[in-house]
Amino acid sequence: MEHRLRHPFWPVKTGHAPAFALSQQWSSRPAMRGWGCGPAAALMVLGYLRLHHPDGFSLPLEALSSEPTKEDCALLLDTVGRRCFPILPRFGMNGLSLAFCLNRYFRRHRMPFHAAWCCRREKALSRIGQMLDNDIPA
């Protein structure tokens, strides 16, 4: 069975071809550039949810249009990333803390989502399929 998101993922205008992912390298913060893959991924998920499930969103994610610029995304990494997804230099952010921070964001903004990190290996693919079927990026 094929699983996919219901909507296209948001492209980021980079000045060249559009990017379909947010790069931690766009951040002005050295720690985020080096170890910020978790916050970058979380902001990609939040950006998609903001566009296609807009109920309950506020804060600076409103800056995300349907086609944000590289500079918009860098600003989000530096502001929302710092405030909502703290990283430890040389360690980054593990999956449990990423799920905790996403859930804190969802609760704070009364959003109907729940992030989970723990899943048995044999259930991982079916869990990813369920997420995609529910229009949540995995």
Protein traits:
mainly alpha, 138 residues
Describe this structure in words.
The protein is an all-alpha fold and 138 residues long. The chain has 5 helices and no strands.
Largest β-sheet summary: none
Question: What is the number of strand segments?
Answer: 0
What's the helix-strand series?
A: HHHHH
Based on CA inertia axes, which overall geometry fits?
Answer: globular
Structural class by SSE content = mainly alpha
Mean pLDDT across all amino acids:
81
Portion of residues within helices: 40-55%
Give the number of helices: 5
Tell me briefly what this model is.
By secondary structure, this protein is mainly α.
